[in-house]
Amino acid sequence: MPALPSWLTEPLWDQFAVLLPERPEYHPDHPLGCHRRRISDRIIFDKMLRFGCSYEAIADTTCSATTIRSRRDEWIRLGVFARLKQIALDAYDRIVGLVLDQIAVDGSITKAPGGGEVAGRSPVDRGKQGLKRSGMTDGYGIPLGRVLAGANCHDSPLLAPTLDRLDDLGPLPDEVTVHLDAGYDSNKTRTMLDERGLHGRIAHKGEKAPIQASQRWHVERTHAWQNAFHRLARCYERRAPVVNAFFDLTDTIITVRSLIRRAWMTHRWDERPNRRP
Predict the structure, then answer these.
(1) 85-to-142, 190, 225 alpha-carbon distances in Å
(2) pTM greater than 0.85
């Protein structure tokens, strides 16, 4: 993943910093009133944005790999990553508008060489450990949520828990169309969609059709955006909360980047890039 430009990292950090609790520079319980200074949260945040490197590779004299992991776990316990993603999604919906009448859901398999809680034998990688994410996007491709499972899980059983993420978005349009590929082509899927009041547009098994013929290409493009962050395309994290945290951070970056690009022509602000991103 290439380095993120300042017009993207600065608004991310500004909002991220607001969500962090205040911490003293020195530990207050030290008997002599002195101790090593607490590593700046900004340093840890910037290093976590380097998705293509291991913790040992991004550690240097400013902080160690252990510090990065401990601060990461602290932020996960506080729910900072999930809150940051929701704030970005709300801002996008308020300024640009989510296309919630057209929803696309699809699964994507990536590598998980270290195994872990949400890994399984990959049917497309000679039985090696892999990770499947069932992702959901709006009609433009903004990520709305995901469900993680082993690579050996079929897409169809993951559809219901993926659609449950719609409950976090508030009121939905009266008519919502869910675009699915042929892997979901079953009466069980159609019944489940009818029970939820959703209209399904599902590709039929055995009938070849270009992905451009429907709205499914939006979720495929979003999977490609997410896979550009190497830590997700080849995931060594073993714990599900950590994997979800990095996905939340990735989805936030994708959402804010899309927001800035689409608002560049219609809005002006102090840190607006000189050229369209």
Answers:
(1) 11, 30, 16
(2) yes
